[in-house]
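haha ok so turns out i had the wrong file open the whole time. this is the CORRECT one, sorry everyone. sequence first:
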Amino acid sequence: ASSGFRRHHRAFMSYIVGAARSAIAKGKPDGILSSTHHPVDLMAKVLEGLVTQAGVPKGAVDDVICGVVTPLGKQGANVGRLATLKAGFPAETPGVQLNRMCGSGQQAINFASAGVLAGDYEVAIGCGVEMMGTVQMGSDTDLFNKEPTEFKKTFPYKLIHQGVSAELMAEKYGVKRPECDAYAAQSHEKAAAAIAAGYFDTQIVPLDCNGVTFNKDEGVRVPVNMEKLGTLKTIFKPDGGVITAGNASQVSDGAAAVMVASEKAVAELGLQKKARIVARVACGSDPVIMLDGVIPATQKVLAKAGLTMDDIDIFEVNEAFAAVVLSWMKTMNAPPAKVNVNGGAIAHGHPLGATGACLMTKLVNELQRSGKRYGLQTMCIGHGMATATIIENVNA
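then structure:
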């Protein structure tokens, strides 16, 4: 069959039939999740919540693909498989762990979708977990140790911290400090409004944390103290920099999972389609500036879908840094009213391996709530990469 036939024929479509997440906690060793949950347990509880929400027998799931960005210690040994078993799936249901850094959760969903389209799966779960208060970011590598090594001496690109890359991106795209701070404040305000309106209630799996029910994103802070925000130091570029702890994503704990099914599974299991996955891509970009891959990824996924920016109703662009989203918005001429409409990682946090699935869960639910049709999600990734996905609300 031609690629056009495969893309538009119902037999070659994949659908999101469930999407769930934990509330996102501050990623501290004594945080509400770090002090009460092992990463395997956290992922397992979200998987249980997902299958309950979707109404799918656990034995009908063909694979569980789990994003984890720092896969060692308590996040090692294949969390995907361990969480699947802990959640009570049959031993016959496999699980795998992957790492495409900040895009891991989104990549897990994209791989699940591709597996359904290929006919390898009828039902698959793309998910992710990260407990940054339990396993420290970067503890799986020696890339940023000061000691010179032969590997780094001969590596073809300069290896720098993402915060330095964010400063380079801000300089390249003409993003200023006041823009970043104003954007950060808006992220908190939008997230707080969404929480107050109950927009996240049905997507969050409540967790029992030593007798306390945890069901609201912990990092959201309103009212925003703009004066304090403006005094924070630009640690990656002390003189004239724009990136601060206040306009970058938070260190967080969380988990999320999205269930993808074929047309056949939808019919046989009586599932409710929430969205059709229209197109999915990953791309590479300059490894030094690192974070502007969201621009070519957006262009690439739109071209694959045969859509334009004007066709998209809601954008989820990961708020690794405000400068990334602002640079993307300027380049892509995106209307601010369509971007991260319920806040983003600056407000609710960025549990690295989980965020891609968290954002997709938010996007699916917001399309359903608003009755809008198309959503696009994209995420910048370390070493110069990006992921992007377009989904369609089949009920719009």
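Confidence is low (pLDDT under 50) at residues 1-7.
again sry for the mixup
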